[in-house]
Structure formats: structure tokens, C-alpha cells
Task: inverse folding
């Protein structure tokens, strides 16, 4: 169970189970980039404000934001950025039933698994967060009118490889919910996850090959007609 956080000298300490940690960070790690040429996109940003600790990662194609509720709020906002690949390697080692303590400071993140005792230390990346003002940025996207690609008569096209990243955000049998947000699609899962994915513009493909439903519909119609005739 989550315990109350303690803050002092830009330090935040909170406890959770290994399972909670895996769910929290596992929801956003698939969205982190892997190209070393763009360091801010290969990081996970921790952002504490009020009674919530957020984790955020993006590679510009998709964005994932997870929220972990804390028993008590922090007195001032707190932000830390660490390498996503290192976080990924660590949480694979954390036992789901173990008690875990997270300590965030300006120097980095410490993860203590208490049973059995193992300590992992991750230095701060030194990079600015990819989206330092993500709350304002996200709110602006949600306020935009849906782009034409989202209201196409042919429906919405999403890259299945990118869409699969959001599977890790699902838990407690909650569904993924989608809604238009400007040129993006906002994706939520309960109150613990918020994300974005960019749709594919198939206007050129449609011009060259047409709508796949134009091929499917005649076969469906013929089958329906045959079924009625047989009856």
C-alpha cells in the first residue's frame, strides 16, 4: 500500500509494492524513444504536484502519462528526468510482491526493494524534460477541433505498432477510451493513464487504391442476400 511521502531539500520519498511500481512505470516506458541523437526523448520524467506523482515518456509519435496517487501532497512541484532504458532494466528485476521505496532528489532516483534488500541508483539525466509544460501542452491539444484526418469518411487509421504501446496501460479490466484531440487521438485508461497517438493520413493511399470497404461490402451484401433467399 502507498504510504505518505516525505519532502525535504528537493527530496521526495514514497513507498509502494513492486506490482504498483511495475504498473506505474510500465505504462509509460513503451513510449520512450531509443535514438541517442535525441536524449530528451529517451528519458522518463517524474513530476510531483499536489497529491500525485506523474511519470511521462514520449518519442513524438506517442505520449504516455501515468499517475500514482500519494497519501499526502507535496509542498512544491518537483521534477526529475532519468534514462528510460535504465528504468526499464531495473523494474524487470523488481519482485511484484516486494515492498519498494522510491527516493527522488535533484541528483537522481533511488529504488530500494526491501524484501529481499536491493538498492538501485539512477543519476539524473541532466536533460530538460521533453515536455516541461506538459499540462498546458496537453490541454491545448484537447481544446483543438478534430483535424480532417480524424473525421474522414473512411474512418480513423492508427499504426498498429504504435497502438500496441498502450496495452501496458490497461489494468483492473479497464478499457482504453479514445477521443479526437486536434491532429491527435487522446487515449485514457481509468484515472491512472493519459496518452496521445498520431493518426495516419491515408488520403494518398486512398486515391491510389480506394477504400478497402468497397471490396468487402459486395461480398457481405451477396452473403446477406443468399441467406435471405435460402430462408
Result:
Amino acid at each position: 500500500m502507498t504510504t505518505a511521502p516525505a519532502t525535504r531539500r528537493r527530496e521526495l520519498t514514497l513507498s509502494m509494492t513492486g506490482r504498483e511500481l511495475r504498473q506505474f512505470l510500465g505504462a509509460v516506458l513503451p513510449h520512450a524513444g531509443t535514438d541517442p541523437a535525441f536524449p530528451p526523448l529517451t528519458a522518463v520524467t517524474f513530476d510531483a504536484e499536489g497529491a500525485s506523482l506523474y511519470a511521462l515518456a514520449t518519442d513524438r509519435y506517442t505520449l504516455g502519462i501515468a499517475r500514482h496517487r500519494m497519501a499526502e501532497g507535496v509542498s512544491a512541484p518537483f521534477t526529475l528526468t532519468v534514462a528510460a532504458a535504465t528504468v526499464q532494466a531495473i523494474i524487470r528485476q523488481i519482485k511484484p510482491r516486494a515492498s519498494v521505496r522510491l527516493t527522488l532528489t535533484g541528483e537522481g532516483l533511488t529504488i530500494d526493494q526491501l524484501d529481499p534488500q536491493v538498492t538501485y541508483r539512477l543519476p539524473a539525466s541532466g536533460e530538460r524534460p521533453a515536455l516541461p509544460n506538459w499540462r498546458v501542452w496537453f490541454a491545448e491539444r484537447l481544446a483543438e477541433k478534430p483535424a480532417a484526418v480524424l473525421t474522414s469518411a473512411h474512418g480513423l487509421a492508427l499504426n498498429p505498432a504504435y497502438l500496441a504501446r498502450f496495452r501496458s496501460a490497461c489494468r483492473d479490466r479497464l478499457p482504453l477510451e479514445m477521443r479526437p484531440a486536434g491532429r491527435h487521438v487522446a487515449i485514457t485508461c481509468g484515472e491512472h493513464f493519459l496518452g496521445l497517438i498520431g493518426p495516419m493520413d491515408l488520403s494518398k493511399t486512398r486515391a491510389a487504391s480506394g477504400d478497402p470497404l468497397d471490396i468487402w461490402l459486395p461480398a457481405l451484401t451477396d452473403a446477406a442476400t443468399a441467406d435471405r433467399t435460402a430462408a
